[in-house]
Design brief:
Radius of gyration: 21 Å
Order of helices and strands: HHEHHEEHH
Keywords: DNA-binding, Transcription, Transcription regulation
Number of helices: 6
Number of domains: 1
CATH topology: Arc Repressor Mutant, subunit A
Distance between the termini: 38 Å
InterPro entries: HTH_HxlR
Largest sheet: 3 strands, antiparallel
Pfam families: HxlR
Strand order of the largest sheet: 1-3-2
Protein name: HTH hxlR-type domain-containing protein
Helix content: 55-70%
Shape: extended
CATH class: Mainly Alpha
Length: 132
C-alpha cells in the first residue's frame, strides 16, 4: 500500500530492465527476419537478400553489421574473385531461435485477437470522436 503524499521509488527502469535490453537487440523489424534466414545455417549475402522480402541492400548490411557487433552473427569471407561472403548465427545467436519461435507461435495463435481488439477500439473511439 502506498502512503499518501510519499513518492514511490520506480521499480521499472529502461536502464536495467531485461525486457528493454532484449527489445533493443531485436526490435528492428529486419533483425528477426535476418535471424530466421540464418536459422538453417550459413547463407550468402545475395541469397539472404533474395529470401527476405522488401529488405534493401543498405538495411541488410546495417542489420548484419549490428548483429555481428552484438555477437549474434558471424561473417565468413572466402578469398575468391569476387570474394564469397556468407553469414551464420553464432552459438549466442542460436540461443535466440527458441524464444523467437515461441513469439512466432504466440502470434499464430493470438494475432487475430489483437486485430479484432484493434478494430473494436478504432470503431469505439472513431465513433466517440465523431460525436464531439
Amino acid at each position: 500500500m502506498t502512503t499518501p503524499g510519499l513518492k514511490k521509488t520506480p521499480d521499472i527502469s529502461i536502464a536495467v530492465c531485461g525486457y528493454s535490453k532484449t527489445l533493443e537487440i531485436i526490435s528492428n523489424k529486419w533483425t528477426v527476419l535476418v535471424i530466421y534466414a540464418l536459422e538453417d545455417g550459413a547463407i550468402r549475402y545475395g541469397e539472404m537478400g533474395r529470401r527476405i522480402d522488401g529488405i534493401s541492400k543498405k538495411m541488410l548490411t546495417q542489420t548484419l553489421r549490428q548483429l555481428e557487433r552484438d555477437g549474434l552473427v558471424q561473417r565468413h569471407l572466402t578469398p575468391a574473385i569476387p570474394p564469397i561472403v556468407s553469414y551464420s548465427l553464432t552459438p549466442l545467436g542460436e540461443t535466440l531461435l527458441k524464444p523467437l519461435r515461441e513469439l512466432n507461435d504466440w502470434t499464430k495463435v493470438h494475432y487475430t485477437q489483437v486485430e479484432t481488439a484493434r478494430q473494436e477500439y478504432d470503431q469505439t473511439y472513431s465513433a466517440s470522436t465523431e460525436n464531439h
